[in-house]
């Protein structure tokens, strides 16, 4: 019996849309997003039928001579039909999409309400399968927790990470906060909550991301890399595949045909920021510039930037083989930039205020460079053709170098303002560097999973010989294809010293990153499920044990949690340090503690972790609420010792679980199908950044970052503690 061939996650579009075509489908989608689960065509049909019914007794001559005879029945029909749709959508918004009862129940024993909710969900998916953003306006508003609950939960999370004397003082200032300025700030937060769909996201994006004056490289960038197995494509072919597949993804997102996760239950608001757009630096605050789907992408090779069109002059998308020839011709040119001009992209690694000043001076005030900057900032995405062939997974050193290079680049081959910078090394292995401010890691991971599904499982790869033959560029190809256009920047006074300064600064920051990539193949989540514990809870408890062994203490720990079931939401902080987790770690370090006690405490700690996850998913987080209160206090001129204390605490341990977004890749069929995951820089100078994911049922992938300049941390040492923790925790279930 033949295996079922994987399906494309989005349409294979043949042409780049013209202005009229794009206007047409965007207009349709505008109605779709305001009428679902009723489609625009049936909606118009109902209006037409209702209008015709009201006019059945009128003669055609009367209708032709008196327009108001038609307008009144038409207005009644539109009002009546839309009123029904309006009521239906409000029922769905406030009852169906707002229902979170299933999170509180045993999945094996659902309540009647959950059974009814599940049945309604199946009916909706059957009669009106949603497009990418069909349900976005139906998602409930992010709830505002009570002030007392938030402060109480915060104090619970700080009990084990704060010295006793400081904790007593924290309780005192929290009580004063609750009885004075906290109440006033909560009232302003309540007003924000009532008059906006999400009282957090606008503040979060502005003050956590766009107002930050730090360099985007390492501090805001996140990395994604691909499969464990060897790549069967040459570098040129892999670059062409990226250009082709990601152009299709870009156009599908714009058409709202991109297959979303969650079947309409999750916010897709930030997918529109993945392609075409660019973060624009400002002297005090950046902004994100969205652009319509572009016809070109950027390719950088040996420090030289090229505009590569992904369609011909008539808008017909180039095939992979045609793009292969365009990329091959580009790579074999003798027009490469030299000297400091080959490092011009390092300007984007600078602090944001300085980059804003240099952008104005070197680009906007120069007519030629301003034109080229527009080409860059409106491009779909960037693809870096890297010269290194050292990317691999054969050793820890190679895997760690692979992950680090994907995160940082070399200072000349990433335009960090762009949301997506893909990279392909000389041996054909690839990865991507994402800019975090316009979207979250889960959305970028979704994009990368879809790419891998198409690249490795759907498209057929030619033999090595066929690839090399197709890379040959004939005279006929030069006449019929639109070849890459080099971006020839003009030298401006002062540019050389600034480029060299930025490049050296980035090189120093890159060398300070201590990356250790763990590819743990001893077991995966399959083994953990047989133990009856949460896989994420298992890894988080292992992290807590490893950190305690590494530092001799518990610390405030960040884990990103999802609240995307609420409108325009991004992430919330899940705090893994609990009474149960600390009791478990202490038992593990106690030689006198029996194995059955340790096992019991591990299960309780994982259960507490799962319950915290559910609280986050229901909108009952702590940190985003307190963050908004901090912003309001500063804006309104309130002095708050409690909020000052909260905002001054460092995240010495920052973690993130990169979820499997699509389940489109069978990671259990072969070790070569394991997706290696991602990484990010440690948030604190003396802290660790830990990004992990499960490679199906057979692996745990983890990237640990710290800084060589810190005397407190060591990624290699922490990695050893992590592997020991994995084995010691699973050994509790040996019998």
What is the CATH domain class of the largest domain? Alpha Beta
Major sheet characteristics? 8 strands, mixed
Strand percentage: 5-15%
CATH superfamily of the largest domain: Chloramphenicol acetyltransferase-like domain
Number of DSSP strand runs: 16
Strand order of the largest sheet: 9-5-4-6-7-8-1-14
Proper CATH architecture of the largest domain: 2-Layer Sandwich
Average predicted local confidence, pLDDT: 93
Number of domains: 3
- Radius of gyration over alpha carbons? 28 Å
Specify the number of helices.
25
Q: Report the structural category.
A: alpha+beta
CATH topology of the largest domain: Chloramphenicol Acetyltransferase
State the shape. Answer: globular
- Regions with pLDDT < 50 over 5+ consecutive residues? none
Helix content: 40-55%
Q: End-to-end span in angstroms?
A: 39 Å
